[in-house]
Structure formats: C-alpha cells, structure tokens
Design a protein that fits this description.
10-stranded antiparallel beta sheet; 19 strands; Anthranilate synthase; alpha+beta
C-alpha cells in the first residue's frame, strides 16, 4: 500500500492519503482525480497517482508515521557516478568551446549516510523549520520512500490562472553574493518558462526578480503567471513543455538531458515533481528538490547545481553540500 503525507507552504497541518498507487504511461493518460501525483525526473518511465478521495487532515504527522508500513528498500547501487567536479569542468569547457550548443546544465550528486533510526517527527520538524517549503513523504514498493522540503513551485493552476517559479541561482554563505553567474543562470530559466506559457496560449505576466530565503540558502526568484482563454485547456502541452525546466535540467533541453546522462546514475524521483491534482482546473505541483531517499540502513541525500560557462567546479561542489544540509540538519540531528 502506498502512502503520501504532504503540507503546502505556510500550512500548519498535513494531509495523508493511502491506497493503491497507479502507474500511467504519460501525463496524457492521467484522468482520475483527485489524486496525489508523483512524477520522476524522466517521465518516459511513467507517472504515478494515488487517489486522495477521503484524504485525512493531520495536525501531527508523527503518530501516523509510527503506524505506517513504509517501503524501505535495500541499498543496492551498481552505478558508478561520475566525479562531480570533473563533470562540472567538462561542462564548462564544452560551453566555452561552443556557447550556443549548451548554455546551462544542472548536474547532481548524492551522498549516502548510515541510518541509525527513522525519525517519526521528521516531517513535523521540517514543517516548523522551513515554513515556506512544500514538505512531503511518499512511499511505495515501486520507488521506496522519499522525503522532500522543496521551495520550488513547478506549476499551479486555479481555474484560468497559472503560476510557475523561476528559481535558480543560489547563495549559501554570508560572504557570498548573487552575481553575474547566478543572474545569468536564473534568466535562462525565466525565459524558458515564459516561452512555455506562451506556447500553451497563455497571456503571460512576469513579476520582478526577488531574493527568496530557503533555510540556509538564498535563491533568485521570478514568478511567472499566465491566463488561459475560455475553452482552452493547456495542461498537457504546458506540463510537457515545462518538465524538466532549466532549473533542474538545462538549456537547450535536449542537449542538457543528453549531457546529464554523464552523471551515470538514475535520479529516480529527484528533480521530478509532486503534489495534488484536485481537478483539471485546480492543481499545485512542486519540484522534488531538497530531497532524500530512505533505505533500510541509510539515507541518500541528493543535490545539484546549475552549471554555466561562469561556473567554478569547487564552488559548485560546495553549493551542493549546502543544499544537502537543508535536510541533513533535520534528518541527522
């Protein structure tokens, strides 16, 4: 039996749904609602939904987690991920050689930490520490158990109004600044989302860029909004165009996804998206960032960094370490 427990930003309660997880070949075949959606980074592997009819509201998730039969897989990893700084350097050299072919690529890594015990209060503590994050746990035999505390809205719809976050560029230390590299990285994401909205026939609006705190990190944020015409249902086109955005994939998309294969490991749910699909005109999905996968004897923390021709490999490595600390500070304490 699958379980999903989630809480949207600035909510004080959680929702929980349990039942059979359904697999769909693609977003085009997702028709049942209300449902909780779990999409992997590579949606060619399909999309999962969990019926949320009868979902309960929780003021405290710890008691429920004690009773849940979570699916904790054995850690069996036959892949040999590429050394992160080496891969970043290779990407920078490729961009400098031909800046028009590949402008940005998001490269990721993971770190495995032995697990002494499962903390039933983890979600409560994440909710308290990161009030502006989407906090969730999803568990099923198909993909195991994952925890996330994501600051990044993938896409939301409320009737004819759509919203997506262009969230990129990261400051992770008091003495560091959001400069040319971060602004260039974030502008690529913003333009991509604007074009995806326009391609779906939406009337587009763009808010001014701001700095968004996310725990020990600060990101550049531009909120992109869109309004659909009466009778136009752009859901399928928009989601297919957006995922993965350059915030987690790169630009151009096809070239970036090809380069990401050099990571030499399966991201699975990391940098996918998840959230409630209440109705075709009412849904809110978040990117599965600041996430960790729970195993029987370890926790795997994931993090990535947006690489442009201005990137410095060692700085990008430190950025991924800082991003892992978002969950490590709660799950390992």
């Amino acid at each position: 039996m699958a379980v999903a427990i989630w809480s949207y930003p600035f909510e004080e309660t959680f929702k929980i749904a349990t039942g059979e997880l359904l697999w769909h070949h693609s977003w085009a075949t997702v028709s049942a609602y209300p449902a909780f959606v779990v999409a992997p980074f590579n949606t060619q592997h399909g999309i999962y939904t969990l019926d949320t009819n009868g979902a309960d509201t929780l003021s405290d998730s710890a008691d429920v987690l004690r009773k849940c039969n979570l699916h904790l897989h054995e850690m069996v990893d036959e892949s040999k991920p590429a050394p992160f700084t080496q891969l970043v350097q290779e990407a920078v050299e490729a961009m400098n050689l031909d800046p028009h072919t590949l402008q940005k690529v998001v490269l990721s890594r993971y770190k495995d930490i032995p697990l002494a015990h499962f903390g039933f209060d983890w979600l409560n503590r994440l909710r308290k520490k990161y009030p502006n994050a989407f906090v969730a746990l999803v568990s099923d035999k198909a993909f195991g158990t994952w925890i996330t505390a994501s600051p990044e809205l993938f896409v939301a719809r409320q009737y004819h109004h759509f919203t997506s976050y262009s969230l990129a560029g990261t400051k992770y230390g008091a003495n560091l600044q959001l400069g040319q590299k971060e602004n260039h990285e974030q502008s690529i994401v913003t333009e991509y989302i604007i074009n995806a909205f326009r391609h779906s026939g939406l009337q587009v609006g763009v808010n001014s860029q701001v700095e968004m705190p996310a725990g020990n990190l600060t990101h550049l944020l531009t909120e992109v909004s869109g309004v659909s015409k009466v009778g136009n249902n752009p859901n399928l086109q928009l989601i297919n165009d957006l995922h993965p955005t350059p915030a987690v994939g790169g630009f151009p998309k096809s070239e970036a996804l090809e380069f990401i294969k050099k990571e030499n490991y399966n991201r699975q749910l990391y940098t996918g998206f998840l959230g409630e699909y209440r109705h075709p005109e009412h849904f809110r999905f978040f990117v599965n960032l600041r996430s960790a996968q729970l195993f029987k004897n370890a926790i795997r923390f994931y993090a990535g960094a947006g690489i442009t021709r201005y990137s410095v490999p060692q700085k990008e490595l430190l950025e991924t370490e800082a991003k892992m600390q978002v969950l490590m500070s709660v799950l390992l304490s």
